[in-house]
Amino acid sequence: MRDAKLAVETGVDGLDVVIGTSSFLREHSHGKDMAYIEKTAIEVIEYIKSKGLEVRCKSCSPSHSDPRLHPEIPEISPMQQCPDEIGCGALTSSAVSSEDSFRSDLVDLLSLYKAVDKVGVHRVGIADTVGCATPRQVYDLVRTLRGVVSCDIETHFHNDTGCAVANAYCALEAGATHIDTSVLGIGERNGITPLGGLMARMVVTAPEYVKSKYKLHKLKEIEDMVAEAVQINVPFNNPITGFCAFTHKAGIHAKAILNNPSTYEILDPADFGLTRYVHFASRLTGWNAVKTRVKQLGLSMTDDQVKEWYVTRASWALGTRKY
Amino acid sequence: MRDAKLAVETGVDGLDVVIGTSSFLREHSHGKDMAYIEKTAIEVIEYIKSKGLEVRCKSCSPSHSDPRLHPEIPEISPMQQCPDEIGCGALTSSAVSSEDSFRSDLVDLLSLYKAVDKVGVHRVGIADTVGCATPRQVYDLVRTLRGVVSCDIETHFHNDTGCAVANAYCALEAGATHIDTSVLGIGERNGITPLGGLMARMVVTAPEYVKSKYKLHKLKEIEDMVAEAVQINVPFNNPITGFCAFTHKAGIHAKAILNNPSTYEILDPADFGLTRYVHFASRLTGWNAVKTRVKQLGLSMTDDQVKEWYVTRASWALGTRKY
């Protein structure tokens, strides 16, 4: 309450309310029990409501308050938006969230959220603070919570076991209304749900909706900008913008892609302002890729000539065949 | 069959049997129908069995046949092992697999696998060749297949939507016996299930089993070796070995981590031969981290002195407070 009062006095438009609810955090971080947490949460919410202010929950990742990581991308940021350089202006809902939700007692968690839902928060939050949640656990917890509260449900997933995109997607399937993301997933430890990865997952499931709602072609630009600002490389294996995300090399892949891209691509690079590339000088590529390249160059060769070239020249040039 | 005969003649120990079963691949890649696929699969399997050879399925990723990507890591590679530089020696099971399983007709797929299971294959394979599968789809498909065949089930997931680790994990939950991985997930497009990410996911769920079965402390070495060989950087956000995977910066995280690491760590860096690092000179870090650093240095300061230092010197040094 002291923090809430101090925060209100600064003249902010909204507050984040967050508390660790797992036994780990209750014991080793703040030392409070569930009764105290519930009582305090309700007091704080009622106080903030009485001041006519709105509250929005952020869970635990410090990246959320780092303006370098929140450039102005209201067009493509699916969930969290920090439209100014200070923090979060223009907040539109009141909410409360738990930290470490997936190591919290289910009944404790549901009791707390049922209580604050009754008080009238607009949003409750589930946070996989330590990155331990599995996709099916996420689905089950959010689905259960969906039946207990009538307000929005925000979720927050860390990526320690590489499941942050999948967990976010399962949360959406189960009825979550908001997903925390950051550009390239930058956040505490190895980060949270990356914006680009979630876009890739969402656009495959609901292409028309996602393409009409977000400016996907800006993704590469924003990722490059953030990567440069914080001095990191965009990972080679990044969904969509990784340097070989739309590169095809294997013979059977290349042949089919040249016939019809949807054979081996569920994402259309053009949606992101990118292009596909089919290797034709790799020892993994078959002669079909060479045939296409021959056509592109306006040359005239029979299939047998192309195959002969592929078997002799290409493999010689690539060091896989010796003379 | 022609390919199978040619392959057997080369004197190999085992064969991979793979075919695309989705309508996309049947139409645009090989042009065969399901009746032909089933008939041919059975013929090929019976031929190979008659030669006393074993068959092992690989799905579609060319990385599997690239020896640079398969250094000798039998200790930690959970599933696929290519112990020699040529390809796969010492194969131990016979199997057949489909490509693009998640865009294939369910009844077609189950019929094919039921038929080859009857013929006596040791393993059937499910491949998310285009990376479109979601975790709950994977669980449902593998669970259904588990009820149809009695043999092992191998799975293969591409990472186009960032779900390859989660999908592999859901496959294991549903009864899959084998997961295809590669070091750093290197494979066609943006790759497949990464070995390290899957280890992170598995060790959280079954720590004792995973720690006794795999030499986790070799993970960083093998990833660094492969990254250097193929001239890429280990991604900044890689599970376990990303440069900040065990770095703590946020104030509430740092305080709790210093009290008890399991508050914010589900992975113990020591299991991987790594160490944790708590930032104490970041503007996101609270005074507790500074207090611990003071103790480490053998200095004597009261809490008030530490707080005073933190508020003045640290924030000044970090450019967040001006005089």
* Biggest interface and residues each: A-B, 73 and 74 residues
* Spatial ordering of strands, largest sheet of chain A: 2-4-5-6-7
SSE-based structural type of chain A: alpha/beta
Oligomer: homodimer
N-end to C-end Cα span of chain A: 81 Å
Overall geometry of chain A: elongated
Question: What low-confidence regions of chain A span 5 or more consecutive residues with pLDDT below 50?
Answer: 57-93
Rg of chain A is 25 Å
| Helical content of chain A (DSSP H or I, runs of 4+) | 40-55%
Largest sheet of chain A: 5 strands, parallel
Order of helices and strands of chain A: HEEHHEEHEHEHEHHHEHEHH
Strand segment count of chain A: 9
Averaged pLDDT of chain A? 77
Question: What share of the residues of chain A does DSSP label as strand, in percent?
Answer: 5-15%
Overall description:
The structure is a homodimer of 323-residue chains. By secondary structure, chain A is an alpha/beta fold. Helices cover 42% and strands 9% of the residues of chain A. Chain A has twelve helices and nine strands. In chain A, strands 2-4-5-6-7 form a five-stranded parallel beta sheet. Chain A has a two-stranded parallel ribbon with strand order 1-3. A two-stranded parallel ribbon of chain A has the order 8-9. In chain A, helix 5 (135-148) links the parallel strand 5 and strand 6. In chain A, helix 3 runs parallel beside helix 4, helix 5 (135-148) packs parallel to helix 6 (164-174) and helix 10 packs across helix 11 (287-296). Chain A is elongated. Mean pLDDT of chain A is 77; it is low at 57-93.
